[in-house]
Amino acid sequence: MLGIFTVVITFHQQNVSNQQRLEDRQLAREQREQDLNLSSLQRAQDKVDARLQREQDLALARQQREEDQRRREQDLNISEIQREEQRIQRLQDLKIAQAKLDQEKNLTQEQHRNSER
């Protein structure tokens, strides 16, 4: 009787072990499938993130180019204004110099006339 009980217990333990092993395999399979799904989702998210980052980088680069272009145009305008102001100043200086020369000439002529009298 004890021998039969031992044999029955042994078979029962083997069945329990086999059942546990099957459950462990099923859990491992489910875990691998879940890991694969998570990896796939992560790769998809990484692609989206990379695309968004590229778009943002392109937008920033475009914005920087536009800002650089505005600055160049502004610098050119400033340079043109400065050149025009310098040209006007030179003309004014020439007029003043010419006026002085004319005054000196007139003064010299007047002094010469006065000395002749």
Mind sketching the topology for me?
Layout: H1 2-116
Major beta sheet summary: none
Q: Report the helical percentage.
A: over 70%
What is the average of the pLDDT values? 93
- Separation, N- and C-terminal Cα atoms: 169 Å
Order of helices and strands: H
Unreliable segments of 5+ consecutive residues: none
- What oligomeric arrangement do these chains adopt? single chain
- Measured by DSSP, the beta-strand proportion falls in under 5%
**Count of helical regions:** 1
Q: Structural class of the helix and strand makeup? A: mainly alpha
What sort of overall outline do the alpha carbons produce when their principal axes are compared?
rod-shaped
How many beta-strand elements? 0
C-alpha-based Rg, rounded: 50 Å
Keywords for this entry:
117 residues; mainly alpha; 1 helix; 0% strand
Describe what you observe in this structure.
With 117 residues, the protein is mostly helical. It has one helix and no strands. The longest helix has 115 residues, at 2-116. It is rod-shaped.
Short précis:
With 117 residues, the chain is mostly helical. The protein has one helix and no strands.
